[in-house]
Amino acid sequence: MADMHSDAPKGEIEEVVYLGVPIARLGTHAAAAHIAARRPGLPFAYVVTPNAAHFTRLIRLRDRRFRDAVSHAWLRLLDGHVPHMLARRLFGLDLPLAPGSDVTAVLLGEHMKPDDAVTVIGGGNGVREALMARFGLTRVAQHEPPMGFIEQPAAVEACVDFVLAHPARYVFLVTGAPQSEYLALRILERGGAVGTGLCVGSALNFATGRTPRAPQWVRNAGLEWAYRLMRNPLGHARRVFVDSLPIFRIAIEARLKPAAFGMADPRKDRP
């Protein structure tokens, strides 16, 4: 996967190929600082946070559109305790975890200034007001696309038009995966936009307290998926059992045939 962007802050970010995806070796705070260091006004570039469901879509569903979106991202951060655990135990990879929700929380709480321009696509009614009230932001613009917008060309272009009409330092694309990633790529393809896009799912609702998040000890134990499943079994069951569970088989296949996933064979490092 080629990284097309050269507008990153000075200093190369090391990447490690994991399940066919180059992942930046950045933890939560380092990732937030790296994003915040990107100068305002630079051409649009975006961040994705591959998790178990993302890897399933890339490898099992062979979603070329999604692969294009991931490959053109400026920064790819590892999200999800299960992929993180598998990377360490099956491949011996020292890949820091940088969940999109955590990176967003650090950006909002430690790096953003009140007058930083922020554009939000999606997020639901009230997220703009919640961001302004919780973090003291004064320049927040929001566009809420209709359900199923990503398959409606006019609705997609309306989102792109909004981003172009509201230049921002940070562009939060929170319409869910893979819609946010598809949209980020479309904004990049159109050209003319500025700022850093962040495809971070429910991160803004977590950060503003509109959606309760698992207690810290639950997150540290890698059980946030179980907490969310318990709170919303109907809405979260597919994500856990259909979209994410195949990561185990994918990782085992990659362990047996690492070259097929662009990875080094960990067995060759044994004495």
Automatic annotation (TrEMBL):
Keyword set includes Chloroplast: no
KW RNA-binding (keyword) present: no
Signal peptide region: none
Superkingdom classification of source: Bacteria
An annotated Gene Ontology molecular function: hexosyltransferase activity
Key words, A-Z: Glycosyltransferase, Transferase
UniProt-recorded name of the protein: WecB/TagA/CpsF family glycosyltransferase
Organism: Ancylobacter pratisalsi
